[in-house]
Specification:
The protein has 284 residues and is of the alpha/beta class. The chain has three domains: 103 residues, 3-Layer(aba) Sandwich (D-Maltodextrin-Binding Protein, domain 2); 87 residues, D-Maltodextrin-Binding Protein, domain 2; 67 residues, Alpha-Beta Plaits (2-Layer Sandwich). Helix content is 29%, strand content 33%. The protein contains nine helices and 15 strands. Strands 2-3-1-4-11-5 form a six-stranded mixed β-sheet. Helix 3 crosses helix 4. The protein starts with a strand and ends in a 6-residue tail after the last strand. Bound molecules: adenosine-5'-triphosphate (ATP), 1-O-pyrophosphono-5-O-phosphono-alpha-D-ribofuranose (PRP) and magnesium ion (MG). Magnesium ion binds next to loops. Pfam families: HisG, HisG_C. GO terms for molecular function: ATP binding; ATP phosphoribosyltransferase activity; magnesium ion binding. It is found in: Cytoplasm.
């Protein structure tokens, strides 16, 4: 049975379970459940604190985990990212009150509060900066007002939390994070574990279904080359003859974000009956 760690709380938890459900796996109904078995798929899901997941996976007791890239790096655990999942996107940044520091180089000698000591210590060492790091469990934005630190290093998504605390970012993001699938470093999920391969293919299928739509249209045969240049598909578009001589029907996957522009461009070159439909699942 494949053993998978899933975040039980926080920003990663809901979207991770939703994605697993979309991929056809049984998910818990009650947030108090800690372990559930999906006998049909021969998978066991362990609902764990997101911060602990890399540690469990690196121990080899669990085969695969879903966590945040920032949490994986912060843990220092012997685990590696194998598939980015496109949700819980954020940056990790330094921030302070305006006027405290012009750039990262000014952080020397300062006190930095964070819940991600591993990332911050690693970054300071890399930059050759000597600063004091104070560990706090959360709500670190308040640490400056309360005098516990002069600088914070925290997750920033919209920037609302920083603005509300009267803080501004310093320098470039230390890292870009999102939810990721991880395994023990070097674990052979590729050939050894058919269930793990199936799991990764299913999640990849959900990602593709979320990112692409199917586009169908009719165009004149002489415009076909121009049309398929707009809709090359993932491999190659399907082209079928129409009963009306001189016309063809084309079907191709297109990125959902570009669908409206592509429809306009197809219309402009004479394509008609242009339709897009959602993809619910796929295996490429
Ligand atoms: N506002 C946010 N937007 C996107 N991702 C976020 C956000 N806040 C936290 N994360 C991501 O969630 C993961 C941290 O999960 P964790 O459960 O520890 O914290 P949380 O989501 O802040 O929840 P809580 O603090 O309520 O427990 C990290 O990968 C982090 O990048
Ligand atoms: O840039 P924003 O969109 O404001 O999002 C970032 C905030 O979200 C998270 O906090 P959370 O609400 O989880 O509280 P926490 O600090 O206790 O983790 C994170 O720690 C930041 O504070
Ligand atoms: Mg939090």
């Amino acid at each position: 049975m494949l053993r998978i760690a899933v975040p039980n709380k926080g920003s990663l938890s809901g979207p991770a379970s939703e994605m697993l459900h979309e991929a056809g796996y049984l998910q818990r109904r009650d947030s108090k459940e800690l372990v559930i078995v999906d006998p049909g798929n021969e998978v066991e899901f362990f609902y764990l604190r997101p911060r602990d997941i890399a540690i469990y996976v690196s121990s080899g007791r669990l085969d695969i985990g879903i966590t945040g890239r920032d949490l994986l790096v912060d843990s220092g655990a012997d685990a590696e990212e194998i598939l980015p999942l496109g949700f819980a996107r954020s940056t990790f940044r330094y921030a302070t009150r305006p006027g405290t520091a012009g750039g990262v180089k000014d952080l020397g000698g300062m006190t930095i509060a964070t819940s991600y000591e591993g990332i911050v210590a690693g970054h300071l060492a890399q930059e050759g900066i000597d600063a004091t790091v104070v560990h706090l469990d959360g709500a670190v934005e308040t640490a400056i007002e309360l005098g516990v630190a002069q600088v914070i290093a925290d997750v920033v998504e919209t920037g609302t939390s920083l603005r509300n605390a009267g803080l501004e970012v310093i320098g470039d993001p230390i890292m870009h994070s999102e939810a990721v699938v991880i395994r023990r470093t070097g674990a052979d999920t590729d050939t050894d574990q058919p269930k793990a391969q199936q799991f990764l293919r299913r999640l990849h299928g959900v990602l593709v279904a979320r990112t692409y739509v199917m586009m169908d249209y009719d165009c004149r045969a002489e415009d076909l080359e121009q049309a398929v240049a707009l809709t090359p598909g993932l491999e190659s578009p399907t082209v079928s003859p129409l009963h009306n001589e001189g016309w063809v029907a084309v079907r191709a996957m297109v990125p959902a974000k570009e669908a409206q522009q592509i429809m306009d461009d197809l219309y402009a070159i004479g394509a008609r009956a242009i339709l897009t439909t959602a993809i619910h699942a796929c295996r490429l």
